[in-house]
Amino acid sequence: MESFNQKFKIYRNLKVFLRICIAISISFILTRFDFAYLEAFFYDLRFKVKVVSPTSGLIETVSVDELSLDQLKREPEVKDHIAFLKKLRTYKPRNVIYTIDPSTLKGSNRDKETLADLGEKMNIIYASKIVPQKGLEENLQLAYPYNRWNAMPGPRTRERNIFANDNVTRRMIVYGFDRPTLHTVVAQQVRNDKKPIRGLYDFLGTTQVLIDFKPTGTYPEHSFANVLFSETQNFKENQIVVVGLNELSDSIHYIRTPFSKSLLAMPTNEMHANMLDTLILNRGYVEAPKSINFLITSILSLMILFVILKVRPVKGLIAIFCLSMGIGVIAFIAFQFFQYSINMVQPLLAIFACYYFFIPYRLIVESRQKWSYQRENKILHQVEELKNNFLKMMSHDLKTPLARIQGMADITLNDGGGLSTEQRKAVNIIKDSSQELSELITSILDLGRVENQGVKLHLKSRDINDIILKTVKGCEFSAQKKNIQLITELEPLFSVKIDEHLIKQAITNLVENAIKYSPEDSKVLITSDEVNNQIVVQVADQGIGISESEKEYVFEKFYRSKSVSNKDIKGSGLGLYLTKYFIGLHKGEIQVESEESHGSTFTMKLPLDLNESTDLNI
Ligand code: ADP
């Protein structure tokens, strides 16, 4: 038994271990794939729902927009830019960043020289789209005469062949081939601290960071024409001014952002503003490393495993829904408050993968359990039938021949003058043994009736003392055999409604036990009294007693204490079970107090006011 239990334990632990391994393997496989398009959806969604990040308030944009074209009636030319820059100079900008290539502007050579001069004096930075490799820095330079301008790499990125492949701009280059881009240089001038840039990661010879995007229109935008023509401009001094195009004519001057995938979602000058602020405020997003994503996915897989195998289906569904929402909330909190981006798709897919993997497993286990219950039920049913048949056989086929044996033994003893002493002894043994067998059959038949709930109470008003006296009389013979004195102390009692037959059987069981488990020459005391509206009958003996550990079991079916089985005292272990049952039918109770080797006292209590309605087929 021990080794079976041990094997079963090992098997169970192995099963649990295997399930955990499967759940973790699912997580491992899932975290090997990046599900870029879906992940990008959840990444962008977090931008859309989160509170917009603060700006440094240091950046303004100027756009050559539709209004400018309308007022100038043409594209701005070199001379317009000269006038614009002269006006802009009055606001003492900290930096002027040009995203427009001045060499594409129309104008006379003299004007071009003037613009080149002005740009040099104002230290304009030209944002080049290229990031030159080492040694090819020349490529950055603008064509003559603008080669005097300070040209720096200010590239934009787009997810074209990598990640989501959806042309959206989500990241920026901070260092290209070990050289800082214009955003890095300008941000370093503004920032006083020397803290390292958050969220840096290496990518194809560049160092990049995820941009902290704000919706289009967050940064103040001035029309080129307004700066040029109107007297009053609410331009602040000492600002970083990004000059660019916003003419809605060519998508090259626009980017798609996490907020919108439209072709003209954000003009590039506003993109530069977003990039600059990401570095100025050091709010680049940090991507969770693969190990963290694997950990989160594994924890969720294990939780789902637990939910599926241990929780009822409806609660399980609710739990799965809550877990899915939970991962969303955690990812959002990490994004909003800690600029930390956790992968959401892998954990969500793990939830569904584990669900679809383990649900069929659960169904198989359940159907196997159902099948084995059904089989057990069938066997129980057969056993029940067998028991009923056996009981029927007992009552008819065993009791009748037994009665005949007892009758014949009586006749032989009564007129058996010719019997020798030995023969008389033998016939007496036949008689005693058949009596024992008859009592056993009666107990088993009673048990059968009890278990089939076929015991019916026939209540009649009776004096319990009369029943006690009758019982004592019936037991006198066996008491005398052991020289046991049966003493009765009976208080006068009111008549109560009881089933005489069952109560007599209960008291008989107690008195017979007292005689059976007492030594020769001892005393058995039977008392009756009325206490608190209850009739109390006690049977006390000076017998072998019952050990403390066995006391709670003596009223159980077929229970016999070890000491009596060893002493070869005969019995079925049914007497006290039936006694308790019969007393229970009368809404009474029975208890035992006992000390080993010093005797036992059984106390039975019956209510005085047992109602007629108890006459049920219990
Ligand atoms: P049995 O047929 O064995 O007497 P019972 O159900 O009447 O079955 O009793 C159950 C067990 O309780 C007995 O086997 C015995 O161990 C213990 N028992 C019952 N009555 C007494 C008693 N008066 N003294 C000691 N032990 C008792």
Characteristic key phrases:
binds adenosine-5'-diphosphate; alpha/beta; 4 domains
Can you characterise this structure?
The protein is of the alpha/beta class. The protein has 4 domains: 2-34 and 288-348; 54-282, no CATH class; 372-448; 455-614, Histidine kinase-like ATPase, C-terminal domain (Heat Shock Protein 90, 2-Layer Sandwich). The chain is built from 17 helices and 21 strands. A 6-stranded parallel beta sheet has the order 4-3-2-10-1-9. A 5-stranded mixed beta sheet has the order 16-18-19-21-20, covered by helices on one side. It has a 4-stranded antiparallel beta sheet with strand order 6-5-8-7. Helix 9 (290-310) runs antiparallel to helix 10 (313-338) and helix 9 (290-310) packs parallel to helix 11. The chain starts with a helix and ends in an 11-residue tail after the last strand. 31% of the residues are buried. Mean pLDDT is 89; it is low at 612-618. It binds adenosine-5'-diphosphate.
How is the quaternary structure best described?
A: single chain
* DSSP strand count: 21
3D shape: rod-shaped
Gyration radius, in Å: 50 Å
* Count of individual helical segments: 17
Q: Name the structural class.
A: alpha/beta
Strand content: 15-25%
Mean pLDDT across the residues is 89
**Order of strands in the sheet with most strands:** 4-3-2-10-1-9
Catalogue the ligands.
adenosine-5'-diphosphate
Number of domains: 4
Into which percent range does the helicity of residues fall? 40-55%
Main beta sheet: strand number and arrangement? 6 strands, parallel
- Distance between the first and last residues' Cα: 39 Å
| Uncertain ranges | 612-618
